[in-house]
From TrEMBL:
Family annotation (PROSITE patterns): CYTOCHROME_P450 (PS00086)
Topology in the lipid bilayer: Single-pass membrane protein
Cofactor: heme
One annotated GO molecular function: ent-kaurenoic acid monooxygenase activity
Superkingdom to which the source organism belongs: Eukaryota
GO cellular component: endoplasmic reticulum; membrane
One family name in Pfam for this protein: p450
Protein name: Ent-kaurenoic acid oxidase
InterPro entries per the UniProt record, alphabetical: Cyt_P450, Cyt_P450_CS, Cyt_P450_E_grp-I, Cyt_P450_sf
Length: 433
């Protein structure tokens, strides 16, 4: 179980800060064999580490035996009434409520125009600016998109306040919950309080407008949550609405920005792949009818090779390298090993995606591995699996696709520091952004 109190956390942090994150899970694999399940003490809890496709599939699909089990820091920062901690029935109700405004065809078609304008304006501005922090600018783009979806009428001051607070909050999500100055969680918790204050202010203004009967210019996610009610007429309280919005802010822009950055870098580093992806985009443009303005959602769904580039980037980069569950009842594995009720389970998606038995030559960026290949359940976990599948996966891929479409057709990127070290917590990214 590792050292007393800290368990395997020092080994975990050392592996991820050393630039070799895979070394953490490789240690039990070398010691006990590639059995896929190992015991450890992580985030102050006895934990089972799960590192093979079949074992991950079992945990993710068995809602009777496992529930969400995120670390205390994640729950405190995202919110106790977000999807992270909700029981299955309540999770399904809220997921159904928010699914259409996020991933529905009509919703995505509506968002496409705003995403397209935001991306083209940003690329044009960057190309005239000289040096930019590419990841920082991409995060601003995706943040602007997600805030538009949730808070249509948010002014620039609200946008800046949300962005500053969210950035600080994000860095503490996978930290240990030590609320003392100097620790990542302490700064992140202060940022959450600021974030809650901003969202509460917007929500209060919406409520005042409702009581006065003022007309709405648009129905965004906050309005939908504010007006939603179940079959008994019960509405969501303020804490539920704010926690759900913070959760979607986290899920809705962070991954999209990082994957857009890495996909761009990989395309530039692989001229043949760049040429194939660009040729596909040029073909799409040639086939657009003269009466159609811009690229439609149906056009994006024809971009098969670009989709393969995105999936390979998701596999290769492993933005969400681990997921968390908790055991709801005593479980026996292979009739020999007991996992006690209340223990945590960590699903190491990174280990699955970098397993040479699942993906030959896993450290090679190879989009063609996805051609005509529907991954076996449990082998591709970029968006999770089962009832807790990422609710914003289609929106995320659309954002990434729009950016890469315009980038491939008209731009190049030159890195000032191509040998820059990679930092792996909370997400893989170059130190210099």
């Amino acid at each position: 179980m590792g050292w007393p109190v800290v368990g395997a956390m020092w080994a975990f942090l050392r592996a991820f800060k050393s630039g070799n994150p895979d070394s953490f899970i490789q240690r039990p694999c070398c010691r006990f064999g590639h059995v896929g399940m190992y015991r450890a003490f992580m985030f102050s809890c006895p934990t089972i580490l799960v590192a093979t496709p079949d074992a991950c599939k079992w945990v993710l699909m068995d809602d009777d035996s496992f529930t969400e089990g995120w670390p205390k820091a994640s729950v405190e920062l995202i919110g106790r009434k977000s999807f992270l901690t909700l029981p299955q029935e309540e999770h399904q109700r809220l997921r159904k409520l928010t699914a259409a405004p996020i991933n529905g065809f009509d919703a995505l078609s509506t968002y496409l125009g705003f995403i397209d304008r935001t991306v083209t304006e940003s690329l044009r501005r960057w190309s005239q600016a000289g040096d930019i922090e590419f990841l920082t600018e991409l995060r601003r783009v995706t943040f602007k998109v997600i805030v538009q979806i949730f808070l249509t009428a948010a002014d620039d001051a609200t946008m800046r306040a949300l962005e500053r607070s969210y950035t600080d909050l994000n860095y503490g999500i996978r930290a240990m919950a030590i609320n003392l100055p100097g620790f990542a969680f302490h700064k992140a918790f202060k940022a959450r309080n600021k974030l809650v204050s901003v969202l509460q202010g917007v929500l209060n203004n919406r409520r005042v407008a409702m009581t006065k009967g003022l007309p709405k210019s648009n129905l965004d996610m906050m309005d939908r949550l504010n007006e939603a009610e179940d079959e008994h007429g019960k509405r969501l309280d303020d804490e539920e609405i704010i926690d759900i919005l913070i959760m979607y802010l986290n899920a809705g822009h962070e991954s999209s920005a990082h994957i857009s950055m890495w996909a761009t870098v990989f395309l530039q580093e692989n001229p043949e792949i760049f040429a194939m992806a660009k040729a596909e985009q040029e073909e799409i443009i040639r086939n657009i009818p003269p009466t159609q303005k811009g690229v439609s959602l149906r056009d994006f769904r024809k971009m098969e090779y670009l989709s393969q580039v995105i999936d390979e980037t998701l596999r290769f980069v492993n933005i969400s390298f681990v997921s968390f569950r908790e055991v709801k009842k005593d479980i026996f594995v292979n009739a020999d090993y007991l996992i006690p009720k209340g223990w945590k389970v960590q699903l190491w998606y990174r280990s699955v995606h970098m397993d040479p038995e699942v993906y030959p030559d896993p450290k090679k960026f190879n989009p063609s591995r996805w051609k005509g290949n529907s991954p076996r359940p449990g082998t591709f976990l970029a968006f999770g699996l089962g009832t807790r599948l990422c609710p914003g996966n289609d929106l995320g891929k659309l954002e990434i696709s729009v950016f890469l479409h315009h980038f491939l057709l008209g731009y190049k990127l030159t890195r000032r520091n191509p040998s820059c070290r990679i930092r792996y917590l909370p997400h893989p990214r170059p130190w210099d952004n």
